[in-house]
Design brief:
There is one protein chain. The strands form seven sheets. This protein has a seven-stranded antiparallel β-sheet. A six-stranded antiparallel β-sheet has the order 10-9-8-14-13-11. A five-stranded antiparallel β-sheet has the order 16-15-19-18-17, sandwiched between helices. The chain has about 725 residues and is of the alpha+beta class. A hairpin with a 5-residue loop joins strand 8 (about 150-155) and strand 9 (about 160-170). Helices cover about 40% and strands about 25% of the residues. Helix 8 (about 275-320) packs parallel to helix 12. The protein has 16 helices and 31 strands. The chain starts with a strand and ends with a strand.
Length: about 725
């Protein structure tokens, strides 16, 4: 067994093949001295291999009496072309420079070329074509010049594969229209070469080639050569396809290799340099025209899109509630990218529209985005094969094959997701896209090469897990919508910040007002109470006057309690507390007995079951239990058999106390205002109170990290539920 080395055709260095075709002759110089030459130049110029190396190129051409215009010279890759005469025959001399060498390439002019048709052909392309028929017109003009068996427009697809989208074929030959070819037929290094040197011909696939002598072939870069031989792999590919002559020019649009004009002939056929360059000129003309048509169409699409986007932007920014604006406009947001489904995750809210996967799949996609967004370019991810490349196991993977994910910032889980479903399609390939291997032993290593496929019989494949690719305009629309939402979010955040600052200032003013008003009101109230008490003692016993004075004293006490409670509520917001483990059994028993006395309800039955310790602030816990137990006793005091039940329960996540009474209950219409300051129950007019106590309790519970809720039924009673933190540890909060 020998160690194996695999060589694929995309590894073949086709630009340094070290050979020229039989129609061409090559001389290479460095500093005007000949350093390499093609073998056939010796016969053409009757030179000796022992004397040609090192000779000055100008001296050689002078000896051969070649009338070379040395002003028409190229010091870069661009060709400088001129006509020369040698032994009563006309040749073209093409000069270019690359990697320190100057290349002189010579080939015969074929008298039958049709340069005189160039002007009319260009006019036909420009005047008679539109975006739909331009390639058909181009092929017609090309065939008028070259007359090959087959001429095709071959368009490269997004994955490097290609499709024949137009053809001109002679009668009796099979059509290749709409056949697909795998990426490996024209691998990456070949596509790169076609972008640099757009014209390529193999005149005689089975013909002779001539090696280059003088310099190691790896040092001679033939990228821009007009006589370079084709690679052995490519020649074998053409033989397998029954082709003996191949010619192509690159279709380059906006600097990108869009496709090729690919021409084939069953018999050997050569096109001289002038004819090849003429076809290149026609191809460039058509490519520029097509680019213009597409640019105009793109501009029109952008104008329509911009009008729609402007309207959408106004709709998004005009709503005060931004989340509601997104919900109302989610369909239009989806349509900006011609998507079929839309997911918006913002501020922990999830909005969906159209054809989207189930909730489980959505959560998986969102989590995948969170895990991978550091690799997103400009916070955006685009794919039309997401369902098979993400690695996710999705229940409805076919829905999310096409996806655009736009993350709204690097430190957020908010995002926009546009979706397209799988676009299953049948593709007809020009032969099954598989290659055979051949091997040889070289220097103790088994070299395994992939050989060109031999069959070009139509092979059909059903492609799954792929959606229609996203167009540039659609991607730009996604970026634009993202910027609008970011701007709106920033505006909203700024408004919230301003409101918070205003609220902070207002709260400070209210706190100051609370202290001031409590002091300013308490003084006259004290005077009023003292005067009323004094009048009560000094006046003659009169039932009506005594009743009025008692009412004054009662109302003054009520107002004083209200002022005290408002001040207490203000202090809660500012206070710093220390949470600790608090034993509440004796506290609850004492508060219950005190409340029975305070609310003159000695017959109230108090049932206390289980009083676990809580985590809280001692003063605040006292206020909470005092208020809630007091309310229970007060509002059940008029019942025939008043009963208050206090039960403590221990749970994994906290301590809960339920304080129940059989009092008047709470009407459902009062449910929304139970914890609002100065709000009283509609059925509580027979009881004294100011509507501040429960508001204080709610603030105290929140301050201690707990919460308060209730359950009630009118005329049956109420249960208040106090949920405290579990006293596993002590800590301070502010």
């Amino acid at each position: 067994m020998y160690p194996k080395e695999y060589i694929n055709c995309d590894q073949e260095p086709i630009h340094i093949c070290g050979e020229v075709q039989e129609y061409g002759f090559l001389i290479g110089t460095k500093d005007s001295k000949i350093t390499f030459y093609s073998e056939n130049i010796l016969e053409l110029f009757s030179q000796d291999s022992s004397t040609i190396i090192g000779k000055d190129i100008k001296v050689l051409f002078d000896e051969l009496e070649l009338d070379v215009n040395w002003l028409n010279f190229s010091e870069n890759q661009e060709l400088a072309i001129q006509h020369i005469h040698f032994k009563d025959e006309e040749y073209t001399l093409a000069i270019h420079s690359n990697n320190g060498f100057t290349f002189y390439e010579i080939e015969k002019v074929i008298p039958t070329h049709k340069i005189n048709k160039e002007y009319q052909a260009i006019q036909n392309i420009l005047k008679l074509s539109d975006k739909d028929n331009i390639w058909k017109i181009l092929l017609k003009e090309v065939q008028n010049i070259i007359d090959f068996d087959r001429a095709m427009i071959y368009q490269f697809l997004y994955d490097g594969s290609g499709e024949v989208i137009e053809e001109s074929v002679k009668a009796g030959l099979e059509s290749y229209l709409h056949l697909h070819y795998p990426e490996s037929d024209i691998p990456a290094q070949a596509r790169e070469l076609y972008l640099k040197n757009p014209v390529r011909i193999t005149s005689h696939v089975s013909g002779k080639t001539y090696p280059i002598f003088g310099v190691q072939k790896e040092k001679i870069d033939l990228t821009y050569s007009v006589t370079r031989s084709s690679s052995p792999v490519h020649r074998q590919y053409l033989k397998n396809a029954g082709v003996e002559s191949s010619f192509s020019t690159s279709i380059i649009i906006n600097g990108v290799l869009w496709g090729m004009v690919a021409c084939q002939n069953a018999e050997p056929k050569h096109l001289d340099l002038q004819s090849r360059l003429l076809v290149e000129t026609l191809t460039r003309t058509a490519a520029n025209a097509y680019g213009s048509y597409k640019s105009l169409q793109t501009l029109e699409d952008y104008q329509r899109s911009n009008l729609s986007n402007i309207s959408l932007r106004q709709n998004l920014l005009s709503e005060e509630n931004f989340e509601k604006a997104l919900e109302n406009n989610i369909e239009d947001i989806m349509k900006t990218c011609n998507a079929e489904g839309m997911i918006i995750k913002i501020n922990n809210e999830l909005l969906t529209f159209g054809n989207v996967p189930n909730h489980s799949d959505i959560e998986k996609i969102i989590q995948w985005s969170k895990d991978n967004n550091q690799d997103f370019e400009e916070n955006i991810f685009i794919s039309n094969t997401f369902c098979k490349t993400s690695g996710l196991e999705l229940d409805n993977s076919e829905i999310s094959c096409g996806i655009i994910i736009s993350v709204l910032g690097s430190n957020t889980s908010d995002m926009l997701i546009w979706m397209r479903k799988e676009q299953g399609q049948k593709i007809e390939w020009a032969g099954k896209p598989e290659k055979e291997t051949v091997s040889e032993i070289k220097d103790g290593v088994e070299i395994i090469k992939f050989s060109p496929r031999k069959s070009f019989e139509v092979w059909k494949e059903y492609v799954k897990d792929t959606a229609l690719p996203w167009k540039i305009r659609e991607i730009e629309s996604a970026k634009w919508i993202t910027s609008v939402i970011l701007k709106a979010s920033h505006t909203q955040s700024s408004q919230i910040l301003d409101l918070n600052n205003q609220l902070k200032e207002l709260n400070e003013e209210l706190d100051s007002f609370s202290y001031t008003i409590s002091h300013d009101l308490n003084t006259p109230l004290t005077v009023i109470k003292l005067n009323a008490q004094l009048m009560k003692r000094m006046s003659q016993p009169n039932e009506n006057s005594q009743k009025f004075l008692d009412t004054i004293i009662t109302q003054v006490d009520s107002m004083s309690d209200m002022i005290k409670n408002v001040l207490e509520l203000s202090k809660i917001k500012k206070s710093e507390i220390e949470l600790r483990k608090i034993e509440v059994d004796s506290l609850i028993n004492k508060l219950a007995e005190d409340s029975k006395i305070s609310f003159d309800s000695p017959n109230t039955e108090i049932i206390i079951e289980n009083t676990p310790e809580v985590l809280g602030d001692p003063t605040m816990v006292y206020q909470v239990f005092g208020n809630v137990i007091g309310n229970a006793i007060k509002y059940s005091s008029k019942s025939s058999k008043p009963t208050v039940k206090i039960i403590g329960e221990v749970y994994e996540d906290g301590i809960t106390y339920k304080i129940s009474d059989n009092g008047i209950g709470i009407d459902k219409q009062d449910a929304g205002k139970m914890f609002k300051i100065f709000s009283r129950m509609s059925n509580a007019k027979a009881f004294n109170g100011n509507g501040v106590g429960l508001s204080i309790v709610q603030h105290l519970m929140e301050k201690m990290g707990g919460e308060i809720s209730y359950e009630s039924e009118t005329g049956i009673g109420t249960t208040f539920i106090l949920k405290f933190q579990k006293p596993d540890y002590d800590f301070s909060i502010s």
